[in-house]
Design a protein that fits this description.
Blueprint: H1 2-20, E1 24-32, E2 40-42, E3 45-60, E4 65-80, E5 83-86, E6 95-103, E7 106-113, E8 116-122, E9 131-133, E10 136-139, E11 149-150, E12 155-158, E13 172-173, E14 177-178, E15 184-192, E16 195-203, E17 211-212, E18 223-224, H2 230-233, E19 247-252, E20 260-267, E21 286-293, E22 296-302, E23 314-321, H3 340-347, E24 350-352, E25 356-357, E26 364-366, E27 370-374, E28 386-392, E29 397-404, E30 407-408, E31 419-424, E32 427-434, E33 439-448, E34 451-461, E35 464-465, E36 473-477, E37 482-487, E38 490-495, E39 500-505, E40 512-518, E41 521-526, E42 531-536
Parallel strand pairs: 10-16, 10-29, 17-30, 18-35
Antiparallel strand pairs: 1-6, 2-5, 3-4, 6-7, 7-8, 9-12, 11-14, 13-15, 15-16, 19-20, 19-39, 20-42, 21-22, 22-23, 23-24, 23-25, 26-27, 27-28, 28-29, 31-32, 32-33, 33-34, 36-37, 37-38, 38-39, 40-41, 41-42
Keywords: Signal
Signal peptide: 1-28
Protein name: GW domain-containing protein
């Protein structure tokens, strides 16, 4: 039924283009940004026949002279169809367009909202020639800096004169990178057409910031069963809508077969965009990271296989309201299968960020007001600082960026974190796998204004998994005062002191992509198809 609806929609669009002829101007598929002004969105816009009457002279044979008579004529006039919504309703959705019409000297773009065809809106509804950037960036003083700060990490979006988001690497800047070796204040300018902005970048002046000691005695852990690599056994399935929940039982290291249970919380949409276009304009739910705070659930999402493993990877953060998402219906968001009113109610509960720097995307956490992402590269070999993004939940825009470093004594003993959890707006718990010593270290990182300090909070002996160190998720459960580390099919529970409490094996044969906890609940994201499962872990 859904496939038929999609085909019918495409057929109607083609018919519209055929009959309207040259009035439709096609262009490349782009992302649009809704501005602060509010404009109506209409189902259609085109010339329609309208009958009207005029009085004109008509020869009357009976009277043998010309007389005035009412004559009905037809003319084509521009007319809007049904008003469907206002532009402000979709300020935090994903807007795309690839065609427009000119009416009274103005452009009216046909827009797609979260992948669904909606209607025409005046281009004045968009943020045109706007540059939205982070106002301030604070960098750690790192004498061993091997990369420097990519100034385009500070870009939320930059639009052209018609409100289309442009590739941020097309923007003119007065610098490409800022080195962390030399303290000072630097101003970075961005310009594209009439869009312009500037960012204040400060390199802090304490070269010893972040130096600490990893001297805690590791708790009892070990090295256990083998997990699998995604390319070996991952369940890929398909992208058809799922209408049944999953239940995965986990056995534990004590021999109990049903020691833990994961059940479906909800299925995510396959896409929030048309299934076309570049990585900047296509939003797919290829999840990498997950976090839950209260009823807010955030995921980090990428388009394209392997994109999250690229240096400087960009993606999108998506925020859901857990108490307002149905188990199955969100899968139909990009299609016309839902009625417009139901669809609008769902998309209002979901917020999508611009295409921003996320790194690998697995180190995501959140608080009541903000989302935090440790935007690091999972394949980095040379010494680097850790880059922390603060994203405002109200706007889904990056508000602040800091870098910090952590080392065990000398800087050469750098700790580069690929997995982290957020405890509050000033505290991060980060996981570091020390391969050379065969243990995991848990670091508590505190922010005081613009400076960071670090202290080893715990350590656990062993590699946990014998054939792979590919951690797929990490979280600290405040209620139970324990750490959880997930691998594909495995979930390890570590006490606050660093002792292995238990581990669970689920045999799901699906790739885990993110782990979160809130109060007594554990949340697990799995890919293909994107799905969130939850569990109450007591043991």
């Amino acid at each position: 039924m859904i496939k038929k609806s999609i085909k019918c929609l495409a057929f109607v669009c083609l018919l519209g283009l055929f009959f309207q002829g040259k009035s439709v101007q096609a262009e490349a598929l782009t992302t649009k940004v809704i501005g602060n002004k509010n404009y109506g969105i209409y189902a259609s816009l085109g010339k329609v026949p309208v009958k009207y009457q005029v009085r004109q002279k008509v020869y009357s044979k009976k009277k043998k002279r010309y007389v005035l008579k009412k004559v009905t004529k037809t003319k084509l006039v521009w007319k809007f169809g049904q008003k469907l919504a206002n532009s402000r309703e979709f300020k935090l959705t994903h807007i795309q367009s690839q065609s427009y019409k000119r009416y009274q000297g103005k452009r009216y773009y046909f827009i797609y909202v979260d992948g669904r065809a909606i209607g025409y809106v005046n281009e004045k509804a968009f943020a045109r020639s706007k540059a939205n950037v982070v106002k301030e960036v604070s960098l750690v003083n790192n004498p061993k800096d091997t990369k420097g700060f990519d100034v385009r990490d500070a870009v939320n979006y930059i639009t052209d004169s018609h409100g289309s988001v442009i590739d941020k690497y097309q923007v003119k800047t007065n610098a490409d990178r800022i080195s962390e070796k030399k303290p000072g204040t630097y101003w970075v300018t961005f310009k594209y057409g009439k869009a312009h902005a500037k960012v204040k970048v400060t390199v802090r002046n304490n070269p010893k910031e972040g130096m600490s000691a990893a001297k805690l005695k590791p708790g009892q852990g070990g090295t256990f069963a083998q997990t699998w690599y995604p390319q070996q056994l991952a369940y890929r399935g398909n992208y058809k809508a799922q209408v049944f929940p999953h239940t995965y039982w986990g056995s534990d290291n004590k021999g109990q077969k049903k020691a833990a249970k994961l059940t479906t919380k909800f299925y995510e949409p396959n896409s929030f965009s048309l299934l076309a276009g570049s990585v900047e304009t296509n939003v797919r739910t290829n999840v990498q990271g997950l976090d839950v705070y209260g009823q807010d659930m955030v995921t980090t999402n990428f388009y394209g296989v392997g994109k999250a493993s690229k240096d400087g990877a960009n993606g999108r953060v998506i925020l859901y309201r857990l108490n307002r998402v149905p188990t199955y219906a969100l899968q139909y968001i990009p299609t016309p299968a839902l009625t417009l009113s139901v669809w609008k109610n769902y998309v209002k509960q979901i917020r999508i960020s611009p295409w921003i720097k996320l790194g690998h995307g697995q180190s995501v956490g959140s608080t009541g007001r903000y989302i935090y992402e440790l935007a690091n590269w999972n394949r980095a070999k040379k010494l680097r600082s850790n880059e922390l993004m603060q994203i405002d939940k109200k706007t889904m825009l990056v508000k602040k960026i800091w870098t910090f470093k952590v080392s065990n004594g000398p800087i050469k003993n750098n700790r580069y974190f690929l997995n982290a959890d957020v405890i509050d707006d000033n505290t991060i718990l980060a996981l570091f796998h020390n391969k050379s010593k065969g243990r995991y270290e848990f670091w508590r990182i505190k922010r005081n204004g613009y400076t960071f300090s670090a202290k080893e909070a715990a350590a656990v002996d062993g590699d946990l998994i014998s054939n792979s160190s590919q951690v797929q998720g990490f979280t600290y459960n405040v209620a139970h005062k324990c750490y959880y580390i997930s691998f594909n099919d495995f979930l390890f529970k570590i006490s606050a002191k660093g002792n292995l409490v238990n581990y669970y094996r689920f045999h799901a044969n699906r790739e885990v992509e993110g782990l979160a906890s809130y109060k007594s609940k554990i949340y697990v994201a799995m890919n293909h198809r994107a799905e969130v499962l939850d569990s109450t872990m007591y043991k």
